[in-house]
Amino acid sequence: MELVIVADLEGMSGVAERAWCDPARPEYARALEQYAEDVRAVSQAARAFGIARIRLLDWHGRAIPPSLCTSDIEPALLPLDRNPRLAVLLGFHARGDAPRAFAPCTLLPGLSIEWDGRPAGELALASRWLGEQGIPLLLVSGDRALTAEAELWTDQTTAIAVKLAHSPDRAECLPPDRARAALVDALQRVLARRSWWWVYRPSSPIDVTVSLPAGGQERLVASSMNELFVQLDRLVARAGGIPTLARLASS
Questions:
Q1: How far is 225 from 205, CA to CA, in rounded Å?
Q2: Burial 141-152 (b: 16+ CB within 10 A, else e)
Q3: What are phi and psi of 39, to 5 degrees?
Q4: pLDDT attached to residue 95
Q5: Would you state the pLDDT for residue 123?
Q6: Closest residue by Cα to residue 5 from 58, 80, 69, 48
């Protein structure tokens, strides 16, 4: 069995300032340290339970921190193969229009998505991408707004809040050791109970409405998450953003 950790930076424990997530800022190295420690804690917990292989996939394709380039944690290669695997969504942020959220965003500033009559963010996209491949989701983590969003989109999965937003740019974090202990405890509890391994398959067809930063809306209808990701990337590029989903679509 293999665990793939799908990770994002903004929702990691200990990342208290949005500015830390800017690669041009000196604090970025500090944020990457927090990222690495969260990933390492989850990896060690999974190995202690007998998971043989741990792979790391950064949700936005950012470079993996060098301290994680070890024999214990391997980069996830895309497309994902058909080996049996489980997944964790670690350090995700809430959707762009979420209230009381730290670093909220959906693919690029000002973009929002409605899916099946519900506001959807990157948590919805990632969980359905995994679900389409039949991969059970064990755990999600992020700020309190992210865990509230999880109640809409991944309600059968344990969600751990590691921080509380005071503003979009600043959060009050749990002490990192306490946050990581909570992640470890939650993961081990879920691993021990197969009935808690939940697969979130997307609706068919996938029908979403995207509100664009410059105004206006576009309806996207897709037969798969891969097709939806290609369509979303086109919208993001057209709006001046950086497409990050196409590399996932090949799987």
A1: 10
A2: bbbbbbbbbbee
A3: -60, -45
A4: 98
A5: 99
A6: 58
Please tell me the predicted confidence (pLDDT) of residue 250.
Answer: 60
- Residue 13 phi/psi, 5-degree rounding, is -65, 145
What's the helix, strand, coil split of the chain in %, to 5?
Answer: 35, 25, 40
SS (H, E, C) 173-189: ECCHHHHHHHHHHHHHH
Pairwise CA distance, residues 69 & 73, whole Å = 7
Tokens coding 71: 């024999």
Domains of the chain: 2-201 (3.40.50.10780)
pTM beyond 0.90, yes or no: yes
Listed as ranges, residues in the chain with pLDDT below 50 are: 251
Angle in degrees, 0-180, between the axes of helices 28-48 and 176-191, rounded to the nearest 10 = 30
